[in-house]
Amino acid sequence: MSDDRDIAQTISVGVDLGGTNIRAAVFDGGMEILGRSEMPTRAQEAADDVIRRIASCVREALDRSSVAAGEIAGVGIGAAGLTDWKTGVVVLASNLGWRNVPLRERLEQELDGLHVEVDKDTNAAALAEARLGAGREFRHFLYVTAGTGIGGGLILDGTLYRGATGGAGDIGHVVVDPDGPLCGCGGHGCVEVFSSGVGMVNRAREMLADKAQAASSTMTVEGLTTETIFESVKVGDAVAAQVVETAGRALGLALADYVNLNNPEAIVLGGGVVRAGRAYTDPVERELRRRALPALGEVVRLVPPGLGHDVGMAGAALLLAEAKANKNGVST
Ligand SMILES: [Zn+2]
Predict the structure, then answer these.
(1) DSSP code of 167?
(2) Are β-strands 141-146 and 150-156 bridged in parallel, bridged antiparallel, or unpaired?
(3) How far away, in angstroms, is 249 Cα from ligand 1 center?
(4) Which residues contact residue 155 at a Cβ distance below 8 angstroms, ignoring those fewer than 6 apart?
(5) How far is the centre of ligand 1, averaged over its atoms, from the C-alpha of 197 (Å)?
(6) Neighbouring residues of 128: CB distance < 8 A, sequence distance ≥ 6
(7) Tell me, what's the pLDDT at 136?
(8) 166 C-alpha to center of ligand 1: Å?
(9) How far is the CA of 160 from the centre of ligand 1 (A)?
(10) What is the Å distance from ligand 1's center to 189 Cα?
């Protein structure tokens, strides 16, 4: 993850706050990890308890790195949910069960006044890809992660673009079928209900509720996962193939709309579902090329992410350098 430039310039801590785990790492100025810590989120507990655990996780990562709190520029957090980076408030995070939690303010108290920056986890990941990963060669790209859900982040003209209240890049809720299934957001036919892991399992369940379909498939409703769907595609299961084909096409359609609106150089497409392989990504790419305006669809590149599991923590740590550069009016 190193670069010859001193990207972050100072030591900083990056925290990836997910619904299952809190992960923290201390990064040096070249974005090498000096030490790390991980704890269960226990999101069912009160937000204040989770925030105290984040603080413990940060302190443990610092201890393991032999770095004192006074030596760091601050702590960046990527939170799994809609987050207003200006106020540091997590507006809505269904994985955490949070609504309007003042994460930055509370964590600064817990960490004795250390500087804290907060953003949506996918924005942090997009920033990390832009500075350290697959996005380094592009000034305009959309970062998309398709796993349990679908999220994204926008890099426009080399800078993370968040929109008015931090929600820019949430491609998971672009509508691809207005009469489609109900989405967790309350809308119908969002790309997430077709193309996410949870969405594919739900669509497969619906198909298997039909007796004729169920008889033609080796899959059963009980214990159905995205893994079983992808395994079934490999052995020629028609129901599984249709679910994955529909998933890929729906995402390709949403991406084509984005390409027509913003003319990006690339789409960095990653996440657990994408790693399942070409049964998913081939229809994404086919639909993207077919639906986008030819002049724009021909130039856009579909590329895998350059960073692995630590992308969220790296991006969170980079939020500090990004905030400083923006404050100084430096275009990055
Ligand atoms: Zn939705």
Answers:
(1) -
(2) antiparallel
(3) 17
(4) 126, 127, 129, 130, 135, 138, 139, 140, 141, 142, 143, 161
(5) 14
(6) 307, 311, 312, 314, 315, 318
(7) 97
(8) 16
(9) 23
(10) 7
Q: Ligand 1 center to residue 176 CA distance, Å?
A: 10
Q: What is the pLDDT of residue 330?
A: 57
Q: How far is the CA of 269 from the centre of ligand 1 (A)?
A: 19
The span from the CA of 233 to the CA of 279, in Å, is 8
Tokens 């796993």 belong to 147
CA–CA separation, 145 and 126 (whole Å): 10
**What torsion, rounded to 10 degrees, do the Cα atoms 22, 68, 28, 15 define?**
10
**What pLDDT score was predicted for residue 2?**
44
- The residues that bridge with 120 in the sheet, in sequence order, are 79
| Rounded distance from Cα 1 to ligand 1 centre (Å) | 34
Q: DSSP assignment, residue 332?
A: -
Distance (Å) of CA 72 to CA 9, 112, 117, 271: 11, 13, 13, 31
Encode 262-320 in three state secondary structure.
Answer: HCCCEEEEECCCHHHCHHHHHHHHHHHHHHCCHHHHCCCEEECCCCCCCHHHHHHHHHH
**DSSP strands (E only) in 167-238:** none
pLDDT score, position 4: 45
Six token digits for residue 316:
């969170």
Expressed in angstroms and rounded, the spacing between residue 175 Cα and the centre of ligand 1 is 7
Residue 187 Cα to ligand 1 midpoint, Å, equals: 5
Residues 6+ apart with CB under 8 A from 249: 283, 284, 286, 287
State residue 276's pLDDT score.
84
Per-residue pLDDT at 332? 44
The alpha carbon of 112 and the centre of ligand 1 are apart by a number of angstroms equal to 38
Distance 215 CA to ligand 1 centre (A): 31
pLDDT at 198: 95
* Residue numbers of the chain with a pLDDT score lower than 50: 1-4, 331-332
Give the whole-angstrom CA distance, residue 178 versus residue 191: 10
**Distance, CA 169 to ligand 1 centroid (Å)?**
13
The conformation of residue 169, written as its DSSP 8-state character, comes to: T
